[in-house]
Predict the structure.
Amino acid sequence: MRLYLLALNPTDSVTEGFLPAAARLGLDVTVLTDQPDAHRRASADRTSPDVEVLECDVRDFRAVVTRVSTHPRTPGETFAVFTNSDHLQTQAALAAAYFGLPGKDWRATLRCKDKAEMRRRLAAEGLDTVWSAELTEPAPLDAPYPCVVKPREGVASEDVVLVDGPEELVRQSKEILARRPGTVLVVEEYLPGELYTLETLGDGHVRHVLGGFHTELSPPPYFVEERLTFVPAHPEPVVDQVLAQLDALGVGFGACHTEFVVHAGRARIIEVNYRAIGDQCDLLLARLLDIPLFEHILRTHLGEPLPAGLGARRDGAARLDYPCADRAGTLTEAPAATELTVDGVHLTYRPLRAVGERHDLYRTNRDYLGVLRATGTDQGTVDRVSADFLTSRHWEIQP
């Protein structure tokens, strides 16, 4: 069976998660991407060296359909279409629907990707009403300040900022639109509360809740995720509220990563990423739960039902830390990749920026210098060992 995997830039989720899983499932893989050279470089030392990489304008579902239709296959060879990219879910869903393959409902992927449409849908279903407006040019708004301004189809806290009034809104939206010509911005009321995630996996009939994370953010006005601590089970009323909102959006197939806040017992969605959680959290989840997570996700797109029980471990504790650049400049000193076990806690550190690289300050996850994954069975020990590791390492940025 052949898997057509749609991708933009290479990601850890694909190179360390889905491609090795596809190899273990015995799938022939064709990566369709607008960045073929980057994927060929990334695949040089991967465990699945026979991955085929083809250039394709993957942002256009028509180009995807044409590429799949014209790609040589052996007689009777079956195939599937899949992506873990935020930006390509609707294209993959439309291509899968065109060929009559298992996949997500393209209307649901569109509702999740388009943050304004998500708000309209939840309000129409009577589940949550959030004040919001859309901007195509800088303009003052009579809004319930403070408000959050962000790209309507953005990801990773990119150009997401808290504004205190109309003048600040005009200034920030002007800066964002200068960086992103033609972008539509969403301005919406700020939702107070602690930030969490819910990770789910479904096949359209069975839905498993894998747990979630408590997310710690950088100080306002920005929203950079600096630490995530695993939450084995959110309170049942909170989970019920989030799942009801996902049902209203039509979410239920494959992996889904939902961000929400809880305030006074009320769960309110911030955004829905209709794919597996990224930034190496999915790699941590697979290890922590001790399940073939990436294989399960792929199997749903192959048309296989999920088991009634995943057999996931429920005694785990974990957290992820993201050392961040606090200024623009060149990284002159940083720890190397490390894997070790301390007091029963397994630590995996991976650098995300090479020594010698120069970068601006982005106020997003592009400021991450590395990621530390820690798994164990006692949260206090996980926290202590993680903190000790970070304080004993040094990152130096020179102007």
